[in-house]
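step=encode ok
step=design start
structure_in=
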């Protein structure tokens, strides 16, 4: 062994044989440990770099991604790493995803409501885009007063295909979201529009728009969040991942929600698809459309 190295490791000057005998460790184990130092240093450095990449991806998701999505994002970036390793490093370095909280809904039943049958039956899937949509509304708190957000989600891709915001939650708000969904194109004739039984969705204005767009209206039961779970879940995701609970102005809230929906969620956020693995909502739409395209 190098004399200078030995003095650093053993400043008291005891022999290796003596120290190993005191500790009850074979000398071969000691020398194997010393010989493995360069390899351990390389491994530790590689782990530091990986943790750095994990932190960047975690920050880029607003702290939302847990180990499965971080692992998927690493693989998409060409980083071949075991998911268990990612999970271990995130646990050791206290890097955690966001746990969503249950939200309070806006559902209010109209006095003379006209209800539609439940055409979804808690089956929140669809084989291709434009076949089934779910809609709901939530409120965002600002120092200027409340701002309301209405959305339409395509169940095949989980893309937000329609959304609208206003300082009220009258029927024209979900109507505007529905018109945006139709304006983007790709809705099937007879596409189902599923919501809760809130007064905005049982209104003449909303029902007329559904009929005009040649869609079919569907509703869950009153007081059962599970009958519209896909829409409820998305609002929980929005509020958990966007971070802000009270905005200074309605305009600031609008800007944050626009960025989250159109830049982060639809185009960047990874979601596990049963056939295509971790993909974004827009990628899911493209893949499903390719599957439907006739062979040349």
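sequence_out=
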């Amino acid at each position: 062994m190098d004399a200078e190295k030995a003095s650093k490791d053993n400043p008291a000057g005891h022999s290796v044989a003596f120290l190993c005998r005191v500790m009850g460790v074979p000398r071969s184990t000691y020398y194997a440990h010393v010989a493995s130092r360069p390899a351990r240093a390389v491994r530790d450095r590689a782990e530091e770099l990986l943790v750095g990449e994990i932190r960047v991806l975690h920050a880029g998701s607003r702290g939302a991604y847990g180990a499965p999505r971080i692992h998927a994002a690493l693989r998409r970036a060409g980083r071949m790493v075991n998911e268990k390793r990612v999970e271990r490093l995130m646990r050791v370095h206290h890097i955690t995803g966001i746990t969503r909280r249950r939200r309070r809904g806006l559902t209010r039943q109209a006095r003379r409501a006209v209800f539609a049958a439940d055409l979804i039956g808690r089956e929140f899937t669809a084989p291709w885009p434009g076949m089934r949509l779910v809609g709901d509304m939530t409120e965002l708190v600002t120092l200027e007063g409340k701002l309301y957000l209405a959305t339409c989600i395509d169940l095949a891709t989980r893309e937000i295909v329609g959304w609208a915001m206003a300082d009220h939650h009258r029927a024209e708000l979900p109507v505007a979201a529905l018109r945006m969904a139709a304006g983007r194109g790709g809705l099937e004739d007879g596409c189902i529009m599923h919501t809760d039984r809130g007064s905005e969705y049982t209104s003449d204005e909303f029902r007329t728009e559904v009929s005009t767009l040649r869609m079919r209206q569907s509703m869950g039961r009153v007081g059962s969040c599970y009958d519209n779970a896909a829409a409820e879940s998305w609002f929980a995701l929005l509020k958990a991942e966007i971070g802000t609970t009270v905005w200074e102005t309605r305009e600031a809230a609008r800007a944050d929600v626009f960025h989250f929906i159109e830049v982060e969620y639809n185009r960047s956020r990874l979601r596990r698809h049963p056939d295509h693995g971790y993909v974004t909502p827009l990628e899911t739409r493209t893949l499903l459309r390719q599957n439907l395209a006739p062979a040349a």
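step=design ok
step=annotate ok -> Strands lie at 132-142, 145-154, 160-166, 192-195, 216-219, 246-247, 271-273, 277-279.
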